[in-house]
């Protein structure tokens, strides 16, 4: 029976219970064009309609009235509804539930306070420090991306991490990785201990060492994977088991991966931190931090701290993040593609001693990394064996900006020991294997061949 002659009331009773709720379907579909337009009438069914057309027909312009059968339609709709949309599709179709006018761009609620209906009646928002619709929109999409119960946006990644440490009390312990961001190291070594919290440092790639360090007083285990800057890989699933066996929380700094490539909450983590300054916003034009969490009780504790300490992200900064996040998946795909090519080039260069990048086949934990992430990302590091040569490379490149940070559409280059990790004492850095000749690069969206030529020239002209 041709689809054009079928009454859709009978279709709704035969394909699925879900179809009963599709009130936008007319009673009759006299033509294939009307059929396709009908599916496109409702925005939140756009993905289903597009998938329906492409999966039911090899020819997108085929005449459904001549070939499509009811059973085939039901099967296609069922298949599409079972498929979870990709991150890029989710970002492009995220419904802003906080704007009554259906604005295509999330509105900026640039206000400090909100009018109440009376002295004793409160609306959903009263003061922007406590909540703002623009921030709610950003926190909602981030929670969805990380598959979290809730997400919270802070003025920076460090503000977010500091809030996590405030969950602990005097006498508690934190077990943290050795190879972590220099700012995190500074917080844990020079600030947190003043509150009476003991901080233990451990090589988190060594599960036995982690298990030995975590004890009854441990309330938080803090890791990065991959680590910054040596790109070491930690087993998130097993470390979560170790932490939870002692009733400790597991925090994963996921800034290098972003929600596009890794979702640590799905691996057992309790809290995921992103420096939204990096890949989430993506353009080096805003500072922001994110905590995505599992469990309503933990979420309420973190919201209390965010509100009480006044560390929530301002509306305009939230709006900048909302604008940048739309292209996050696209940016990361291009950046990762470039990074893979650059890593392979560096690995073959005679003046490079070692390349740290999980996308290379000789990375010692490549298999582990790909068991918990969708890609290797676009941050890598390499050693030349000479501080003088490394300094020359960093200063001679034309297309890499010398700067701390990463995750920008612009390629960045740095020497961690003298920049992002300079606050760590030299003896401590050396003991942890962080050598002064190490170069870290964050690969942008430029043409990969230009970046490779730039690095090749800098390496080839350096001192011998």
TrEMBL record:
PROSITE patterns assigned to the protein according to its UniProt record, in alphabetical order: CYS_MET_METAB_PP
GO molecular function: cysteine-S-conjugate beta-lyase activity; pyridoxal phosphate binding
Gene Ontology CC: one annotated term: cytoplasm
Similarity field: Belongs to the trans-sulfuration enzymes family.
Official protein name in the record: Cystathionine beta-lyase, chloroplastic
Cofactor(s) needed for function: pyridoxal 5'-phosphate
One Pfam family linked to the record: Cys_Met_Meta_PP
Amino-acid biosynthesis among keywords: yes
InterPro entries (alphabetical): Cys/Met-Metab_PyrdxlP-dep_enz, Cys_b_lyase_euk, Cys_met_metab_PP, PyrdxlP-dep_Trfase, PyrdxlP-dep_Trfase_major, PyrdxlP-dep_Trfase_small
One GO process term, biological-process aspect: 'de novo' L-methionine biosynthetic process
Modification sites for N6-(pyridoxal phosphate)lysine: 278
EC numbers on record: 4.4.1.13
Family annotation (CDD domains): CGS_like
Cross-referenced PANTHER family: CYSTATHIONINE BETA-LYASE (PTHR11808:SF50), TRANS-SULFURATION ENZYME FAMILY MEMBER (PTHR11808)
Keyword line: Amino-acid biosynthesis, Lyase, Methionine biosynthesis, Pyridoxal phosphate
Top EC class for this record: lyase
Subunit structure: Forms homodimers. May form homotetramers from two homodimers.
Signal sequence region: none
Source taxon at top rank: Eukaryota
